[in-house]
Design brief:
The chain is α/β, with parallel strands linked by helices. It has two domains: about 190 residues, 2-enoyl-CoA Hydratase, Chain A, domain 1 (Alpha-Beta Complex), CATH 3.90.226.10; about 50 residues. About 50% of the residues lie in helices and about 15% in strands. It holds the Pfam family ECH_1.
Length: about 260
C-alpha cells in the first residue's frame, strides 16, 4: 500500500526526453490539453533542458509537442485558480519553464498545429523553427488579458521586425505557417506531420560541423543582437571567440580542405 501511495504521488511524465544519436528530443506530453504548460510541466522542461546543456554527447536539442500540437501556451486553468509560479521560481525561470535559460548549443523547434501565446514564446526560445504548413502562430493570450512574460516582447521583434511583431502583439491574430515563413519566423516549411522528421534531419546536419567554431559564431551573433553596446564591442567579442577555435578546429579544417582533390 505504501508503494502504491508513493507511486500515485509521483508526478506524471509530462515531458518525454529521447536521446537520438547526438540529438536530444524533448517532447511536451500533454496532448489532451493541447500541450499547455502547467507548473509541473515547466519544471520537467527545465530538467530536460538542463540535461541537454550538461551533456557532452548531445549537440542539438529538438523541442516538439506530442499529438500534433506544439504548444498552446500556459495552462490557464491554473491561472484561473490563482495558481501562479512563486517569486522565487521567477527569479531564475519564467512560467513556461526554460525560456530564460541560456544555451550554449542549438535548439530547434518542430512545430505542428498551434504555437501560440506561451507556445509562441517557447518557439522563439529556439534558434530555428521547422513548421508544418498547417501550423498556426499567434499571441492568443492577448484575448484573455495574459501578458507575454517568457521573452516574446523582445524576441519576436528581433525575429520578424517591430512592425510585424506589433501586428501580432496588438491584435492577437493568428498567423498561418506560409506567412510566418515569409516573415522569417519559420526557417523550414514542411508537409503536415513532417516537422519533427525534418527537424531531426536539420539537427543532424548541424551536429556534423566542427562544434566549437559553430558555437563561437552562434554566441557572437546572440551577443551582437542582445548584449553589445557598440559596433566595436561586436567585433571584439567575435574576435575573442574566433581566436579560441583557430588552433583546435580552423587549422585542422583548413589542412583537410587544402588536401582535397576537389575544392568545391
Amino acid at each position: 500500500m505504501n508503494f502504491l501511495r508513493r507511486f500515485s504521488e509521483m508526478p506524471a511524465k509530462l515531458v518525454n526526453v529521447t536521446p537520438k544519436d547526438n540529438l536530444l528530443l524533448i517532447g511536451i506530453n500533454r496532448a489532451a490539453k493541447k500541450n499547455c504548460v502547467s507548473h509541473e510541466t515547466a519544471k520537467q522542461l527545465i530538467a530536460a533542458f538542463d540535461r541537454f546543456e550538461r551533456s557532452e554527447e548531445h549537440k542539438v536539442a529538438i523541442l516538439y509537442g506530442e499529438g500534433g500540437t506544439f504548444c498552446a501556451g500556459y495552462d490557464l486553468s491554473e491561472v484561473a485558480k490563482g495558481k501562479v509560479p512563486s517569486g522565487q521560481f521567477l527569479e531564475k525561470y519564467r512560467p513556461m519553464g526554460p525560456t530564460k535559460m541560456v544555451f550554449s548549443k542549438p535548439v530547434i523547434a518542430a512545430v505542428e498545429g498551434y504555437a501560440v501565446a506561451g507556445g509562441l514564446e517557447m518557439s522563439l526560445m529556439c534558434d530555428l523553427r521547422v513548421a508544418s504548413r498547417k501550423a498556426i502562430f499567434g499571441v492568443f493570450c492577448r484575448r484573455h488579458g495574459v501578458p507575454l512574460i517568457d521573452g516574446g516582447t523582445f524576441r519576436l521583434p528581433k525575429a520578424i521586425g517591430m512592425s510585424r511583431a506589433m501586428d501580432m502583439i496588438l491584435t492577437g491574430r493568428e498567423v498561418d505557417a506560409t506567412t510566418a515563413y515569409e516573415w522569417g519566423l519559420v526557417n523550414r516549411l514542411v508537409d503536415e506531420g513532417k516537422a519533427l522528421e525534418e527537424a531531426i534531419k536539420l539537427g543532424k546536419e548541424i551536429a556534423k560541423f566542427p562544434q566549437n567554431c559553430m558555437r563561437a559564431d552562434r554566441n557572437a551573433a546572440y551577443f551582437a543582437a542582445y548584449d553589445a553596446k557598440s559596433f566595436e564591442e561586436c567585433f571584439s567579442y567575435e574576435l575573442k571567440g574566433g581566436l579560441e577555435v583557430i588552433g583546435s578546429e580552423s587549422q585542422p579544417g583548413a589542412s583537410k580542405f587544402v588536401g582535397r582533390k576537389s575544392k568545391i
